Amino acid sequence: MGKGKAKGGALGMGRGGDNDALDCVFHPVVLACLVCVCVPIVLGLSIGITRKDAIKIHNQVKTKCTTNATYAIPYPCCDLVDCSCTECGANQPTCSNALQALTAGPCCGGYKCCNTVCDTCCREESYYESYRCNCHSSSGSYRCSTCYRTRYRTVCNQCNCRCVQSVVDQACRVACGTCNNLFSELLVSYEDGTLGPRLYTGRCARDQTACVTNWLNSHPVGSVRTCYYDRRNAGGTVLFSRSGYNVAAIVFWVLFLIPIVVWFLVLCLVGVCYVRDECSRRASEKHVDNSIAMGSVPEPTPAAHLAADTPFNRTAGLYDPAPAPSSQPPPPPQAYRPMTWEPSAPPASFGGDAPPPGGPPPYTEAVGWGAPQY
Hints:
Largest sheet: 5 strands, antiparallel
Number of strands: 7
Strand content: 25-35%
Radius of gyration: 53 Å
């Protein structure tokens, strides 16, 4: 009986702090924030954005691109310019037909509203305005409340817009010149050691000679540049700069991953402490059981609690400490001798309320069973 109570008390004391920590780790609010907020956002960013960027960057192979040829191919092109709010002349082609036919000159662009006028519409709008009210002094400080009142303001915007100047056929002009398609033939070195031709293209607008010159100077024949290609599509686009991660997605991913990591570390720490305390408790109980089995540690009995070392038990003669071990044999038991009373002469100062000579002494009794009651 005593052994069972001792084990139960040790178990409760060993697990109390760890149980409180586990209650905090598995608190419903903590779990709800992790499961409903942090985990979905981390998984969504990981699968939807970060994972795709990581796969794309992983499949980009860094290599060398050698420029084999660079050239520009000119071709005629036309643009629509100088449109005005006037009617076009008779027998002029439409601008769309002139652009298709690459025919420079005046053309008719169709209906065009050149000027629009709008009215100003206003309306009264109510809103709430805060102000200080009910101000008073209290405990050496000046306090005020916040009150609200309704205010009105005029809000105006444009309305009833209408065209006041227009033309049925707008007069425009088609300007024609020379545009250029730009090409650079590249030789890409692949992972397996082979070379593959690739075409890098660009375009310069009408009569932009500076654009053509800049392209030819930027891609000289025989130049070698660092480039990247996708190993999943070796014949696809060649890039001269490596793709990067989505920085905003990574920032949000890290911010919402931190609470999950902290929660997991705290859970591991609490689990380690719990296992350590449990192993220590079992080792202590095993040591006590072995000591009791070998007889070196007597198991407590309920009677031992009745003779506790208290002032009352000492006075009543109930406390009897265990004698120190001795090598001498114990003395033989003495024969029982009943107590007798023999009268004695009264003292010289006999008198007052003392009992008469030859009478028995006053009866007193000291009883002390159990703990003293105060």
